[in-house]
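1st attempt posting a full record on here, be nice pls
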Amino acid sequence: MQTTNEIKQSQLSLKTTYQQNPALAQSQLWARVVVDPRHLSCQVVEPAGLNPVGMHAMGGGDGTWVCPVELMLAGLAGCAGVTLGAVADSMKIELRSAAVTAVGDVDFGGTLAVNRQAPIGLTKVTLRFELDTDAPEVSIQKLIELTERYCVVYRTLQAPPELVTEVERT
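the predicted structure (as tokens):
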């Protein structure tokens, strides 16, 4: 496992590379699942370890599997947590402990087509930071502001990208 200093050294090298050749900074991140139609679930193949994924109990599942929306919220909380730690380190803010919770409001009446006027999807996402630190309030405000600014998942949800659907027959 890398230490903070090792990550910083790696980042310095990457920053130099990306400044010299911006095209090298371009990449695609991806996830892949294999669908099990019999159980209305899927197995996350990449990244591994996030399995199984299925219906939420409020959507008809038995509650034993990870809901895809919960995966998305975990991605947001995880990205915000990693970013928070990096920004706190950069700002020299000591965090004795920190936790990030992402909460999404959803109306399953829309998802299950019970109410055609009900929205489908999350209507609100709340990102809650729990911090144990002696840093002054102004520093905490700046820490959160910079975390929001540099958190990739947060920024993606804030300004959604173009969504493209493709079908490949196998």
